[in-house]
Write the structure tokens for this entry.
Amino acid sequence: MNVKEDIRLDLNNLDTEWADLPDQFHKYSEEGDLLDSEIKIKKLQLEILEANLDLKIRANPKTFQIDKLTETIVKSTIRADLKWQEESLEILELEKQRKLMASACRALEMKRDALKNIQSLYLSEFYVAPSDPEKKQERELRVEEMAKRNVRTEMKKFYRRKQKTENQEIENEK
């Protein structure tokens, strides 16, 4: 995933920008949800590790070189465990990635708002058509070409989706 490319707005291809936006948003929000689930699993594993270490420490404090058993010493011994530290660092890294996915979703929302504003400017004819007849005809040809390209793009996407669905049905039958 390349967030910087996905959030960049291509003014020359507004039709494809609009068409791709839902897929991009879904991709990043789905990735964020998956990371969220993974974080919950890792936190549960960390709690289990803490409980097991706590039991081992309390059962045999001499193994951990503890003379006097207190809550603070038990917690400190657990946090000094290398496996506990690795699990904690993994959780922190996953949370960082989840925050990046959330930032990407916010950036895509900003992109959507920018597309809405540009669209309303075009619809209000903010970008005024040229008064010169030759330039006016040239502009009309470009607009017509963009409309044709949009239809082609939508048709390609339709057939890609159809092919994906068929492939998934074939895989599901297996």
About this structure: The radius of gyration is 28 Å. The first helix runs from residue 3 to 7. Residues 3-128 form one domain.
